[in-house]
């Protein structure tokens, strides 16, 4: 049996208008599962239903075999980390972290031992007497994390905890979260709309859309093999070309794109037949620029170049579509037209 289970859940903020409908989810003990998707897709609703802030109209929330569906939030041994930290401004770092233990009436000597241990674990030594206003954003998020893990929760829920941090701090905190999760073995459910966070942290990822699960799988499966156009676009397959299937030969498809034959792998597509209209999705970093004559090559008019330091973004028009090509280094072709190339194994085919 899975450690966390949501069974046939209907839940939302207005009675009779559920955001989650017949929703099912399973999380294994010790894994970090990310709920990934755009704003409004149901990620936070799922988290709040597990935490008990939203009582499901239908279905069951099970944790380690126990039905939590009608247990109030304060009676669930669940740790919570929010994007706005939710620290008590008048309490020191030590007292913020100790708050949950004091509410549980843990004896003082054990509180001191547990808090000191977790302060060291999250690298907040010598900051125990400071107030939250005296801390950096990264330090405040560490306090929020420490407060959640010091109670030794059955489950840790994190709702976009890094979204208020700058890029460098986000990188540091991602590494910190990953280290702590592996060190402690806590089961975590992590809500984010950031693909990099989900890919770098997760054991599994669930892509959500309008209250439903579009796809679930390992980071590699989600990144390499999106199963729907929604997942493909969300995971960075920003380019698309329209075409028509003209040939199927075992594991190979031939698609006519504006009069140019394109080769694709049938294994990276849904079931399609001869004559079916399709979209070809591919990432900017998987496309190449060339001089023409190569396989899967389309004549392209260069619109502009955008130097980005380690890469150069090239915008072109090809077969009536706007295509972006991410080139390594400082690439400037220096001509008004060229060709865009798409490798066979980098294309996702979806029937229109």
Instruction: Tell me what portion of residues adopts beta-strand conformation.
Output: 35-45%
CATH architecture descriptor text of the largest domain? 3-Layer(aba) Sandwich
Task: Enumerate the strands of the largest sheet in spatial order, edge to edge or round the barrel.
Answer: 6-7-8-3-9-10
Gyration radius over CA: 25 Å
Secondary structure: helix percent = 10-25%
The pLDDT mean sits at 91
CATH superfamily of the largest domain: P-loop containing nucleotide triphosphate hydrolases
CATH topology of the largest domain: Rossmann fold
Describe the structure.
The chain is of the alpha+beta class. The chain folds into 2 domains: 4-231, Rossmann fold; 237-351, OB fold (Dihydrolipoamide Acetyltransferase, E2P). It has helices at 43-51, 93-103, 108-121, 137-149, 167-184, 195-201, 219-224, 229-234; strands at 4-11, 20-27, 32-36, 58-63, 66-67, 78-82, 155-159, 188-192, 204-209, 212-217, 239-249, 252-257, 260-265, 277-282, 288-290, 297-307, 311-318, 321-328, 337-341, 348-351. The chain has a 6-stranded mixed sheet with strand order 6-7-8-3-9-10, with helices on both faces. A hairpin with a 2-residue loop joins strand 9 and strand 10. Helix 2 packs parallel to helix 4 (137-149). The radius of gyration is 25 Å and the shape is elongated. It starts with a strand and ends with a strand. The model has no long low-confidence stretch (mean pLDDT 91).
